[in-house]
């Protein structure tokens, strides 16, 4: 039987703690129905006997304090909400225990932006981590040594599992069930809890927000110009001219500062413009594409699908 420790971290959401507790325990019921022994022993493991959460709205009583758990097999780090630097600081008393358990063979299941605390332990250095698209820029600033995955939902690397996207942690829970117990149990849990097992990407939900906390005024000037004029037809050379810097040098600075090439940044801004108008549902897809400055409809469809995983018409059907 695998011992599971769910940590009631400071600034954690009660829903992510409760969902993990319910789903992993429910799996034991599935096993009982099949005449098999329970697979998980699930406990909430904290610093004190009682943890106050949600600004004092909720109290969670732990099963054990961490000093009474010398060995665990799976650590669940819940989704955090609020000020990440403050949450990292307040949760430092967990750090040594989490690191020691990992080096003793425990796996770590990190739900969404619980990754901010996990990264602060140093365990993600040089590794991939799925991060919610809205937190990517802040995460990259705080932890440049981590390889961020901001389009996929799940990362799996050396016993550390992370996910990006608010309630995509439900998909991560299904993923670990499949990893531990096979596809049949994962599908059963998907059906019982009505979780879409096929959800693989954040792209349809992502809102592009350019990284602007880089301190390069020339790059920032061009970013703001592109964003303020999404229907204009741009060229990379024209943007370099606006910055007053040679193309090779400016392209290098732009990519370093924003994480995108100039051409890709232009495409992302135009896709966001198109998405907003598709959501309104008042114009045809082709009318919106022409408004973005594209004359080649098929070329824009390909760009749109690359960033959203959906065609413009499918996006309109889903979100309009």
Automatic annotation (TrEMBL):
Domain HTH araC/xylS-type, first and last residues per copy: 220-318
Alphabetical list of SUPFAM superfamilies matching this protein: Class I glutamine amidotransferase-like, Homeodomain-like
A Pfam family of this chain: HTH_18
UniProt-recorded name of the protein: Helix-turn-helix domain-containing protein
InterPro entries for the chain: Class_I_gatase-like, DJ-1/PfpI, Homeodomain-like_sf, HTH_AraC, HTH_AraC-typ_CS, INH-QAR
Keywords, comma-separated and alphabetical: DNA-binding, Transcription, Transcription regulation
